[in-house]
């Protein structure tokens, strides 16, 4: 399935780019994700844990920056992981693009092509989409908490970042200072670990509501419903 998301953050393009190309900082904002090692300048190893209803799936694999264009501020990441219980796997190709906007804002577009086999795939596209939406919302909230600084400090990340040799990836040696308001909203995360695994289907009604909303926005549902009504009317007559 292909997933495209866009969000706007009140930070400079340089600071936002530095954040998105530092996978350790990104992992800290991803529910259930953690970077466990680094193979070379562009390749990392890590884990991701998801809990969907009664099922918990843990993946272990690699992430690699396949393409990086610092001038255009676009990056392409390829990730592959296997279920630690041997019950499937997942592959992803993700392209991120950073575009500066007026008034000190930056727009981030993330397009992903995800393939899932095994435990999570059995829940179907609707639930996988629900997982994606919830993970993305939590990621954006955490990213904003790290990047949105008081006036005069939004560019701190860009000023302190240094490029990795041969990769063009910005690495921030220290955590960017966070404003008191942002810090209060930022989850407490142990060093080197991501957010706790996200629990989807914790409330069946919530998922059902979101699934119904997606269905009602689909024209095919309305057309199919109309046909069913006509048939029932004809039978009853």
Question: How would you describe this structure to a colleague?
Answer:
This protein has helices at residues 13-20, 23-28, 124-147, 156-160, 180-185, 204-216, 219-236, and strands at 2-9, 33-38, 43-52, 55-69, 74-83, 88-100, 106-118, 162-163, 170-171, 199-200. The chain is α+β, with helices and mostly antiparallel strands and 237 residues long. It has 2 domains: 2-201, Alpha-D-Glucose-1,6-Bisphosphate, Chain A, domain 4 (2-Layer Sandwich); 203-237. Strands 1, 2, 3, 4, 5, 6, 7 and 10 form an 8-stranded mixed sheet that branches. A two-stranded antiparallel ribbon has the order 8-9. Strand 4 (55-69) and strand 5 (74-83) form a beta hairpin. The longest helix has 24 residues, at 124-147. The chain is globular. The termini are far apart. Residues 151-193 and 201-205 have low confidence and may be disordered.
Helix proportion: 25-40%
Q: Per CATH, what is the topology of the largest domain?
A: Alpha-D-Glucose-1,6-Bisphosphate, Chain A, domain 4
How many individual β-strands?
10
Gross morphology: globular
Mean pLDDT: 73
Largest sheet: 8 strands, mixed
What is the class of the largest domain in the CATH system? Answer: Alpha Beta
Radius of gyration: 20 Å
Distance between the termini: 43 Å
Write the CATH homologous superfamily of the largest domain: START domain
* Uncertain stretches: 151-193, 201-205
Count up the domains. Answer: 2
H/E series: EHHEEEEEEHHEEHEHH
Q: Which architecture of the largest domain would the CATH scheme give at its second level?
A: 2-Layer Sandwich
**Secondary-structure class:** alpha+beta
